[in-house]
């Protein structure tokens, strides 16, 4: 209706004439009612004119704002049909959460997160013990079945909504909103002990600043009877007839008198100084987890340094992290390459590499080989931990996350294989030096990083240099993964409580202090038992369950085909084969593989032990409690959300509503969202914000 035209005299005459014609057509009772109504309202018409003019001005301002909004939308995203139907009530929630400065910032962060300590100290051991070169076949197959589909799912999931795990599941499936919080719990538990390992690496790096490494010789204050130093032995045997035994040098006469020649050549009863130094001096390992002991203050100080560097790197947000990870993600490759060229030139390196690559095809018919390959690729790429969703949530909306998944996924696999060459060239050299079989030398986990390799560097020219390079590489590998773990936790806090975005520094400080205090228990003399317990249980069965639920939500509840169409709004249209590939994997193959892994690990469960010492029952129960903390979070939050949700006519209707996405779910671009609660009455301005993503910190007011 043209209000200004109506208010003009000509418009009024025309309107009143039309009214008069209608009035003549009325008859009887209706005519008398119309006369009474008109008589009542006519005195108020002059007073209504200013109000009508004000409403007309508001109408014009709203139309102009709507046009501007439509232009913004058309330039940044595709309007969905649902949005078009609900354009009358607008809500675009804008959260100033920041974003990566460039695409390579994200790629480096993702590479640093995915390529971690496990690529260097776990994969080579699994390869040699599960078929050598033949292990690469199930490893690559499991990358296709599990690693790549889950990685692409989470990267596109986080990028589409621009939300961390704690907020994103609440919008796509309210009943299972606890999945995101469960992921945060896993990241917290892993961060507690992961930073302690980085602290060990810092301590060893500092110990490398010496003319002679402290673990090159057996020192009385920490060496055991079995400690055997090849340097002391070389110095002793330089004198004809002398024998080095039990850390003492016996001359020819004493050897013949005590008859210790055969005992001195028994290599099975020897322990390298690096082993005693790590277990007895650095850790001070107690007899069992029941004797937790006191704090190792050297480790505590290095843990404090680790958390301080983490705070300084994360306090400025993802943009500062994006710059730091250029170094933490790329420097390990520099050191690996240096170690590779040094390793392959060592005597015995060829034997180690041949042992690493020689295929044992009989291992391929053993189910455990395939399970080990699946577990390794699953934990190498870290899906269902929340880190992938968190990192991708800071991407620009049209970033090609499909290409990123391929680059980082393939890069991770190649890094694992490359690290195997480095480790086995060095292990081959050590085996020849010790004149022992290779399979008695190789180790995994902390044993490889803090015992085998430190022992190797003592046999190389300029040992402190190689020691420094190796442990500095471990630090950069660990810090890259640690940044993503902590960013997952902090993003969850800020997505849950948006006002805290303005206090980023305090959030980072609080998380770092909490992490430092939580890691102190691992810094005790019995901390190695705690670390092994947390490493085994904190991110095992629960992660498989969360990955299965992710596939259930995206593949079946929300719909794989629907989600792929969402992805196409970000990266462009794809072929039918591309659609069929991911639909088949997300709905069938990937969840089926995950269920098999979960069941196999439950059936194949064995009680924990460390140094052949079994854990007590209460420690096992504590481990299982850590396993089920994320599961309990999912169940409890689902029940609470179901109880607090609006009442429906039936239980089934309420359940159905809780399993489907909410009106707030949608792409992270300037797309209108409906919200019936918005009002322009009472002098309130209307705020248009964006629920997932922003490039500015200002609100748009209509």
From TrEMBL:
SUPFAM superfamilies assigned to the protein according to its UniProt record, in alphabetical order: SNF-like
Cysteine-cysteine disulfides: 218-227
Residue numbers binding Na(+): 112, 115, 119, 412, 477, 481
Protein topology in the membrane: Multi-pass membrane protein
Cited InterPro entries: Na/ntran_symport (IPR000175), SNS_sf (IPR037272)
Subcellular location, record wording: Membrane
Spans traversing the lipid bilayer: 104-123, 135-157, 178-206, 295-312, 324-341, 373-394, 406-431, 465-486, 506-531, 537-559, 580-602, 622-643
Alphabetic keyword roster: Disulfide bond, Membrane, Metal-binding, Sodium, Symport, Transmembrane, Transmembrane helix, Transport
Family: Belongs to the sodium:neurotransmitter symporter (SNF) (TC 2.A.22) family.
Protein name: Transporter
Taxonomic source organism: Biomphalaria glabrata
Name of the gene: LOC106062904
């Amino acid at each position: 209706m043209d209000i200004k035209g109506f208010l003009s005299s000509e418009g009024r005459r025309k309107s009143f004439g039309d009214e008069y014609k209608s009035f003549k057509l009325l008859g009887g009772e209706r005519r008398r009612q119309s006369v009474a109504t008109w008589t009542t309202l006519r005195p108020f018409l002059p007073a209504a004119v200013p109000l009508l003019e004000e409403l007309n001005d508001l109408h014009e301002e709203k139309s102009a704002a709507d046009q501007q909004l439509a232009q913004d939308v058309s330039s940044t995203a595709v309007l969905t049909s649902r949005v078009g139907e609900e354009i009358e009530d607008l809500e675009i929630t804008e959260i100033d959460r920041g974003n990566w400065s460039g695409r390579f910032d994200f790629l480096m962060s993702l590479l640093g997160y995915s390529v971690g300590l496990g690529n260097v100290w776990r994969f080579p051991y699994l390869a040699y013990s599960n078929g050598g070169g033949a292990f690469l076949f199930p490893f690559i197959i499991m990358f296709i079945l599990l690693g790549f589909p889950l990685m692409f799912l989470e990267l596109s999931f986080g990028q589409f909504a621009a939300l961390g795990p704690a907020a994103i599941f609440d919008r796509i499936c309210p009943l299972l909103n606890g999945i995101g919080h469960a992921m945060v719990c896993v990241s917290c538990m892993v961060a507690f002990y992961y930073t302690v390992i980085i602290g060990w690496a810092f301590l060893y790096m500092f110990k490398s600043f010496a003319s002679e490494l402290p673990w090159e010789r057996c020192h009385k204050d920490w060496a055991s009877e079995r400690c055997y130093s090849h340097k002391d032995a070389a110095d002793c045997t330089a004198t004809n007839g002398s024998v080095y035994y039990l850390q003492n040098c016996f001359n020819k006469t004493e050897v013949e008198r005590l008859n210790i020649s055969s005992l001195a050549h028994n290599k099975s009863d020897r322990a390298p100084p690096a082993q005693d130094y790590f277990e007895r001096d650095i850790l001070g390992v107690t007899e069992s987890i029941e004797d937790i002991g006191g704090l190792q203050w050297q480790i505590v100080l290095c843990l404090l340094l680790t958390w301080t560097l983490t705070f300084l790197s994360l306090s400025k947000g993802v943009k500062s992290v994006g710059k730091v990870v250029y170094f933490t993600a790329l420097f390990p490759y520099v050191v690996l390459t240096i170690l590779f060229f040094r390793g392959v030139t060592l005597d015995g390196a060829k034997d180690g590499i041949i042992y690493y690559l020689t295929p044992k095809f009989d291992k391929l018919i053993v189910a455990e080989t395939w399970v080990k390959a699946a577990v390794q690729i699953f934990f190498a790429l870290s899906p269902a931990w929340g880190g992938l969703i968190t990192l991708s949530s800071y991407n620009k909306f049209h970033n090609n996350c499909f290409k990123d998944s391929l680059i980082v996924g393939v890069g991770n696999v190649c890094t694992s294989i490359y690290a195997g060459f480095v480790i086995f060239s060095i292990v081959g050299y050590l085996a020849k030096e010790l004149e022992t079989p290779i399979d008695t030398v190789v180790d995994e986990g902390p044993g490889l990083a803090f015992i085998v390799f430190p022992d190797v560097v003592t046999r190389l020219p300029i040992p402190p240099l190689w020691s420094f390079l190796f442990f500095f590489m471990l630090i950069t590998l660990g810090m890259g993964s640690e940044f993503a773990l902590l960013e997952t936790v902090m993003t969850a806090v800020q997505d849950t409580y948006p006002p805290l975005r303005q206090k980023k520094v305090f959030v980072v400080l609080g998380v770092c202090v909490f992490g430092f205090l939580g890691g102190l228990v691992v810094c005790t003399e019995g901390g190695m038992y705690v670390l092994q317990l947390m490493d085994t249980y904190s991110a095992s069965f629960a992660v498989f369950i969360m990955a299965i639920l992710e596939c259930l939500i995206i593949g079946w509840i929300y719909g794989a085909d629907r989600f792929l169409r969402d992805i196409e709004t970000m990266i462009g249209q794809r072929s039918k084969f591309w659609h069929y590939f991911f639909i088949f994997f997300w709905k069938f193959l990937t969840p089926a593989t995950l269920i098999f892994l979960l069941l196999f690990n439950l059936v194949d469960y064995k009680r924990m032990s460390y140094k052949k010492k079994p854990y007590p029952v209460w420690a096992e129960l504590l481990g299982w409690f850590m396993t089920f903390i994320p599961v309990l979070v999912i169940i409890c939050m689902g029940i609470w959300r179901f109880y607090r949700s609006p009442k429906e006519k039936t239980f089934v209707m309420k359940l159905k509503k809780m399993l489907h996405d909410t009106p707030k779910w949608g792409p992270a671009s300037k797309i209108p969202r409906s919200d019936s609660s918005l009002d322009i009455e009472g002098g309130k301005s209307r705020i248009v914000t964006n629920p997932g993503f922003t490039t500015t910190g200002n609100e748009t007011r209509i």
